[in-house]
Amino acid sequence: MDWGLRNRIDRMFSSTSGHSVMLAVDHGYFMGPTRNLENAKATIAPLLPYADAIALTRGILRTSVPPSTTTPIVLRVSGGVTILKEDLSEETITTSIEEAVRLNVSAVALSVFVGSPHEHESLSNLSQLVDDGQAYGMPVLAITAVGKELEKRDARYLALACRVSAELGAHLVKTYYCDGFSKVVDSCPVPIVVAGGPKLDSIEAALALAHDAIAAGAKGIDMGRNIWQSEHPVAMMQALRAVVHHGATVREASAIFHEANVASAPPAPSGMA
Ligand code: R5P
């Protein structure tokens, strides 16, 4: 792997744990002003110091993230439909690879819709993006989207979608946690990070998702709603970091969450693992 491409990937993952806590704030690209992300700048600011990478669109990057940030950027470059459409799979590439380079991002990300009406187009988009990215040392993160069909989040389907993404050249894959998740990880030759999905019933459920995903071999999380729709987003980031980077149990991480939201959130430690 070329040095520049390797460097872009490595800086998103801790050199000590090998894992990553990515903050996902790209939801507006098809959902509009999602709850607690209406003012993206205000949502992002306190969380950014705790993120190993942040996933967003160029519009939110330019308007809501200070250019002085050192946090690696995962730039969503697919879109073109909104939740008002029944079929969400008709995405195109919305942002060029030259724009991604201009924005100095660490990776580009697109959704692939395996088994959906526009499966072919989304997989073609992935292949083209890998080719385009290769010329610039730009890694591609494939997101195995399920659209509105959340029931697709099972090991058989996700293993298929992740494997196909890796076969077509994705350097990283974002998918969902599911029962039998190790089957998904074991059959995917590139690192997997997991999304959180819609907000879960409890903090502990979200921490357990992260814990079990890492235990099954995921290299990190790329989580949104279970962080910034939590009552205490900074405390949630701290608790998730304990799980992902330090192997905390759900009980230990839950205690960190509750302690952190009692005290006012301390500044992120420098050189965070
Ligand atoms: C969809 O909008 C994106 O791929 C999200 O970044 C992904 O689903 C992670 O966010 P959440 O944890 O809210 O599902």
Structure write-up:
This protein has one domain: TIM Barrel. The chain is globular, with a radius of gyration of 17 Å. The longest helix is centred in the middle third of the chain and has 16 residues. Helix 9 runs parallel beside helix 11. By secondary structure, it is of the alpha/beta class. The strands form two sheets. Strands 1-2-3-6-7-8-9-10 form an eight-stranded parallel β-barrel, surrounded by five helices. It binds ribose-5-phosphate. The site of ribose-5-phosphate has 13 residues, from strand 10 and helix 10.
Structural domain tally = 1
- CATH architecture annotation: Alpha-Beta Barrel
Largest sheet: spatial strand order:
1-2-3-6-7-8-9-10
Largest sheet: 8 strands, parallel, barrel
Proportion of beta-strand residues: 15-25%
Q: What average pLDDT do the residues reach?
A: 95
Unique bound compounds: ribose-5-phosphate
Termini separation comes to 25 Å
Number of strands: 10
The ordered string of helix (H) and strand (E) elements is HEHHEHEEEHEHEHEHEHEHHH
Radius of gyration: 17 Å
Discrete helix count: 12
